[in-house]
User: Which sequence fits this backbone?
């Protein structure tokens, strides 16, 4: 059952990435297959509506209370733990200084 839920989640992540234009070419076949299902089509429409709302182009077919339900669902999402920086990664202050230093010395 957990594998099935993970697969469902992965498919929705692929559809979301596809709708954002960020899906890797190697995952296109899976995403297109998922879009041929009722659930995939619903996910596609939902992600595009969310994008429209985020870009302040709300569509007229949004139901009453959509914003409140979306906010509640987002609030219920588990927070991802902060990731530790990769070994050898620059601290934020150092990386900004390095960028400025490189930019100042570039032709």
Assistant:
């Amino acid at each position: 059952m957990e594998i099935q839920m993970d697969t469902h989640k992965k498919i929705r992540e692929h559809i979301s990435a596809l709708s954002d234009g960020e899906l890797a070419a190697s995952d296109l076949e899976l995403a297109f297959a998922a879009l041929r299902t009722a659930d995939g089509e619903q996910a596609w429409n939902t992600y595009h509506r969310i994008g429209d709302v985020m870009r302040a182009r709300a569509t007229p077919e949004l139901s009453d209370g959509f914003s409140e339900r979306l906010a509640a669902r987002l609030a219920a999402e588990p927070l991802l733990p902060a990731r530790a920086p990769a070994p050898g990664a620059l601290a934020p202050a150092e990386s900004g200084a390095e960028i400025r230093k490189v930019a100042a010395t570039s032709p």
The mean pLDDT is 76. Residues 19 and 103 are 35 Å apart (CA to CA).
